[in-house]
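INFO  loader      accepted 1 record
INFO  loader      residues=367
INFO  predictor   begin
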Amino acid sequence: MAQRMLKVGEPAPWFVCRSPVTDQFHFQSVAGRYVVLCFFGSAADPSNRRVLNDILANREIFDDRHLCFFGVSIDPDDESKPRVGNVMPGIRFFWDFDRSISRLFGAIAADGSDVGPVHYNRSSLILDERLRALATFPFGENVEEHVPKLIEYLRSLPALTLETSVAPVLIVPRVFEPELCSALIEYYESHGGKQSGVMDEQEGMTVHKLDYRAKQRRDCEILDDPLRTAAMHRVADRLAPEVQKAFQYHATKIERYVVACYDSVSGGHFHPHRDNTTKGTAHRRFAVSLNLNSEFEGANLRFPEFGPRTYKAPLGGAVVFSCSLLHEATPITAGKRYAFLPFLYDDAAAKARQANLKYVTDEADRN
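INFO  predictor   done
INFO  writer      dumping tokens
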């Protein structure tokens, strides 16, 4: 655990915690915008209340698209009274009553010696779109100056534009020929798809759950042996060598043979997520997004940590990227997008997958 506040350029540690709206808020999912992480401790203190009121007075700057604010409370009364709560868009709070987040970021001692009254390093930490430290603003003695200085700094930051950076992804054309793409779409249409969920970690187990706010997509598992074999050979012969060349990674295993469909009628989308954050998915190394058709609008890949630029593979081509990257499928606005969506890994990762099977429910193992 960190014993000091982050310095410029250092990555913020990830954590999962309670908030006013969920028991499991995954902090790593907020990348892709500037973030203010404010360690105020307790809203009972008048000076802390002044800071929070000043933040609310400037709430128009926290639009969630470019900038968001998270306040960290270690006082249970802030929740039970309640003294603070989310103001959407852009202003949220974390309940850090066990003080684990505060220790992680150096707001209090990391050795557990903070039982009872503590010296709390009240400050606002500014993070960039990749959740790396930009600046730290201590509250100081003149707390009325804190938010004006903070806002002045935030307004000086460059806009996150299309030119911000390029995501480290590989685009490979001509992996599947048009005939195979058509055959896979026909298979989907004849067998139908079922609603696809997300993987979550609950009490140490990887579980499958439906969350229509996070994901709206229907998947069809390919059970036809000739189709599976055709897809496997093309990934092995045409895609894997390109992955080896670009990433120096020898993929030997494929997880999932599914055709997925994002439908504009049902509002297909998949909110920002990473593909390897549970015990049941930790073995995944690279994700493949291979388009089986091109007659659609939207449903493109976006990597929020690298700006708003979107990526779209050509018909029969694939976008390949590390499962550690935060990514989303933007909402589809017209037509249907059909895609083949496997994961790639190697023999070493296969052993890790086998070892973690005891943490995976039957339903999660099928998704």
